[in-house]
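To the wet lab folks,

You asked to see what we're planning to order before we commit. Fair enough. Below is the target structure as tokens, and below that is the sequence we designed to fit it. If anything looks off to you, flag it before the synthesis order goes out.
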């Protein structure tokens, strides 16, 4: 073989080696470039994920409450009336005074008594004057003695009428003064017993159907802020007031404190409905859409929009009748930035 041929073969081998090295370098560069693009794409996709906070949907007890204002009044109120026409001769109590049952609160001198006593007194006075003109007249002396006996008898027989209280309590009203002339059956005093108090609560026509006799209630009064009182509905009035569309509910208060008085303002809370093991979610997690309510849950790293069929709303929670199940990962923060299928990253997870 000639030197020329040998040289050409060596040159050809070198060229092949150079070509192989070049191909390998290009392959490495291409591989590195593609890997970088894939990593960049993954990072870009990762950066598009929205950060959210989730909590699992869990069954809970829901209690629907109705809180309304009310006014206290005494359960026992007694009006003391004049038993006869006459004059108030003694007044023994005034507003705010405590009285016991059968305690005398005033004395009434009837007109009949006044007439009989005055007639007897005037007759005795007239006989005395006649006898003064004829001191030796024995008949006038006897008539004077008889007139004086009749006068004393009238004083003893026709006494003042005591006015008494039929119940124990406080004098809430006094309608007469000393010396007043009053007709028979005139109202003299009002006595209220604060030992038993009622709360009158006006309830709208929409809510009154949720209440019934015997139902319990909680009563809060500013006059006794340290206590929460129990009460029971003892009467629901059958008529609704036409102007306000409110019906009256009467609650008997158990064990009232001495600071509570008739006319005071109270707040009354009724439990109208209770649902055990309800699927419920926090109201802030709910998004209002036209004619519907939605929320978002996380499923396989993506946000999923859920249309809700809802029920009771109470104390910051909304009952979900249809749309969610226990254990769903509910988005409670960051849901405003989500759409159906948006990639998400859960706060606190790597």
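Sequence we intend to order:
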């Amino acid at each position: 073989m000639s030197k020329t041929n040998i040289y050409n073969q060596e040159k050809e081998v070198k060229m092949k080696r150079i070509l192989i090295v070049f191909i390998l370098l290009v392959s490495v560069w291409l591989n590195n470039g593609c890997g970088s693009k894939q990593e960049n794409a993954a990072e870009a996709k990762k950066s598009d994920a929205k950060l959210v906070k989730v909590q699992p949907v869990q069954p809970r007890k829901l209690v629907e409450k109705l809180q309304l204002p009310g006014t206290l009044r005494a359960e026992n109120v007694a009006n003391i009336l004049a038993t006869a026409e006459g004059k108030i001769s003694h007044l023994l109590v005034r507003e705010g005074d405590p009285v016991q049952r059968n305690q005398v609160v005033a004395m009434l001198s009837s007109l009949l008594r006044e007439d009989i006593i005055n007639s007897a007194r005037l007759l005795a006075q007239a006989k005395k004057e006649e006898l003064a003109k004829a001191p030796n007249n024995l008949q006038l002396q006897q008539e004077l003695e008889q007139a004086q006996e009749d006068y004393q008898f009238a004083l003893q027989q026709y006494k003042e009428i005591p006015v008494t209280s039929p119940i124990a309590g406080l004098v809430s009203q006094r309608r007469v003064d000393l010396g007043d002339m009053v007709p028979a059956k005139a109202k003299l005093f009002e006595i209220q017993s604060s030992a038993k108090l009622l709360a009158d609560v006006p309830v709208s026509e929409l809510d009154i159907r949720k209440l019934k006799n015997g139902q319990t209630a909680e009563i809060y009064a500013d006059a006794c802020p340290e206590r929460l009182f129990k009460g029971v509905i003892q009467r629901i009035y059958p008529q609704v007031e036409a102007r306000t569309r409110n019906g009256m509910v009467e609650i008997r208060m158990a064990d009232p404190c001495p600071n509570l008085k008739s006319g005071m303002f109270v707040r009354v809370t009724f439990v109208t409905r209770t649902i055990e093991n309800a699927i419920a979610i926090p109201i802030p997690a709910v998004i209002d859409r036209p004619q519907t309510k939605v929320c978002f849950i996380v499923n396989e790293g993506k946000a999923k929009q859920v249309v809700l069929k809802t029920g009771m709303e109470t104390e910051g929670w909304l009952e979900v009748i249809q749309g969610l199940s226990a254990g769903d990962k509910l988005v409670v923060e960051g849901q405003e930035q989500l759409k159906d299928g948006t990639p998400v990253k859960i706060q606190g997870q790597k």
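Structural context that might help your review: Residues 39-45 have pLDDT under 50 and may be disordered. The longest strand covers residues 59-81.

Thanks,
Computational group
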